[in-house]
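Re: Re: ligand-bound prediction request (bumping)

Still looking for help on this. To restate: I need the protein modeled with zinc ion bound, output as structure tokens. Inputs repeated here so nobody has to scroll up.
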Amino acid sequence: MKWHLRVNNHGEYLISNTEGTEIAQAFSEQYAFLLLDALNHPATIMAKYPPQDGREWYCQCARCGSSVYEADEEFSGVCMSSPEWCEANPLPRREHIKRGKVEWFTL
Ligand SMILES: [Zn+2]
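Reply:
Sorry for the wait, this slipped through. Here it is.
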């Protein structure tokens, strides 16, 4: 899904996607371009819930990058690798992250 920016005949900045969903209007030009850039590029975020920005978010263990069970509707993640493997194989600079912390990302 791609997002694009247009200016209507009132001079307002409108951001909409290729499915016709319009999410924002009347931003400053600077803010509109920042938002557009963020929407159109892959992102990751460590949080209990994914952002509600219209994109498809996937989750993984923030420590080792393995898939995560969404154990319940609260999105409390369970790393699908063994505790030993997760403990021994953290991603670079993720050594301090606890197993099962959920990281959300877009493709
Ligand atoms: Zn893990």
